[in-house]
Amino acid sequence: MKPEQILEAGVKLWVDGDFQKVKLRQIADVLKVSHPSVLHHFRTVAILHDAIVKHAAAIGDEKSIQYLRLIGYLPK
Question: Number of structural domains, the chain?
Fold first, then answer.
């Protein structure tokens, strides 16, 4: 499993729900891997959330970008 797969799953879960509620275990379940497999790439939820935010912005996910602007993470 590649880190990009984890980030893609994270963005999908985030867009479908609430960013703050995206858990490592949820992503592991979506990818059908163990929780430690996700932890191997992203040691904490905070690191994972930061990576998901950056990935969402990088791929141009419009819903994510709007949210990031709303919370002040990206300029308006």
Answer: 1
